Amino acid sequence: MDSLISTAWLASHLGAPDLLILDASWHLPATGRDAAREFAEGHIPGARYLDLGSLKDAASPVPNALPTGDQIAARLAELGYRPGQRIVIYDASDVKTSARAWFALRRAGIGPLALLDGGLDKWRAEARELESGEAQIDPGQPQHLGASDSRVRNKAQMLSNISSGAEQVVDARDAERFSAATADTRHNLPGGHIPGSRNLFFRDLYNGDGTFKDNERLREAFASAGIDLDRPIVTTCGSGVTASVLLFALHRLGIEDAALYDGSWSEWGADPETPKASGTS
C-alpha cells in the first residue's frame, strides 16, 4: 500500500479484513464544527473515529503535545486495531488533521499507514457510499509502544538552532501571521515567527480538489520557500498540526528525517523570553 491512496483505491478495498480506516477529523474551535457529530452523521463505511483532539499528552508542558506511545496503543485497541493491519487515515478538516495523526502513529512505530488523498471532501464529491451511526467494534489488546523523539524538537533545541543554523526551519502558517501583518488569533498571540525560519503555507501543497500536488510541484514549493531539501529540516506552525502536512509532503519526496517542533508558535509566541521576528524572512 502506498502512503497516499486514492478514493478509487479505498472504495475497491472497503471491507478488507486487514484494513482499518480512521477518521482523524478535528476542527478549530472558531469553526463551530463538531467532528464527533459529523462522523456520526456520515463517514466512510467501516471507519472508526480516532478523536484526534483528545489524543495528546496532557502531562507535557507543551500545548497540544503529541500523544505517548501507550496513549496511541490504548486508543487503537479501543478502535479494534490488530497489529499488522494496514491503516488508512482521512479527515474533513480545513487544517488537514490526518497528517497530524499520520505523524503521531508513525512516531509510535505503527504501520503500514496511508492518507486518503483528498479526504472525505473528495469522497463526498464523488458521491461515494457513506454510513451513519457508530461502528460496531471488537476491541483489541493494547500493545506497549514507545514514541521516539528523534524527529521531535523542543524549545531549547529550537533556541540553540537559531545560532547554529544546523537545521532549516519552515513554518506552515499563512504569510500574514508569519510576517506579523496580522495577529495569530487562533492562539490569542501576536503574529511573527522564529528568527531565521522560512514560510511555506501548508495549503500551497494542495491542488484545488484537496489532493496533494505531484512530487515535482512539491519540490518547487519547498524551493520557492528557500528550503534546501538536501539539508536538515524542522517544521513548525501554530500548534504542530499543519506542520505535519509539511512533514508528509517531505516524506513523499523521500525525506524521512525531517523533524517537528511540536510546541510551535503556541509555545514559542507565548514565552516572553523567546526571540521573535517579523516580516517575510
Description of the molecule:
The protein has 281 residues and is α/β, with parallel strands linked by helices. It has 10 helices and 10 strands. The protein has helices at 7-13, 35-41, 69-78, 98-107, 119-125, 155-164, 175-179, 215-224, 242-252, 264-268, and strands at 4-5, 19-23, 48-49, 86-90, 113-116, 152-153, 168-171, 198-199, 233-236, 259-261. The chain has a 5-stranded parallel beta sheet.
Tell me briefly what this model is.
The model has no long low-confidence stretch (mean pLDDT 96).
Total number of strands = 10
Structural class: alpha/beta
Span between termini? 39 Å
Number of helices: 10
**On the 0-100 scale, what is the average pLDDT?**
96
The helix/strand series, from N terminus to C terminus, equals: EHEHEHEHEHEHEHEHEHEH
Major beta-sheet overview:
5 strands, parallel
Query: Which segments are poorly predicted (pLDDT under 50) over 5 or more consecutive residues?
Result: none
What is the CA-based Rg, rounded?
18 Å
Helix content: 25-40%
Gross morphology is: globular
Strand content: 5-15%
Physical arrangement of strands within the biggest beta sheet: 1-5-4-2-3
List keywords for this structure.
single chain, about 280 residues, alpha/beta, five-stranded parallel sheet, 10 helices, about 30% helix, about 10% strand, globular
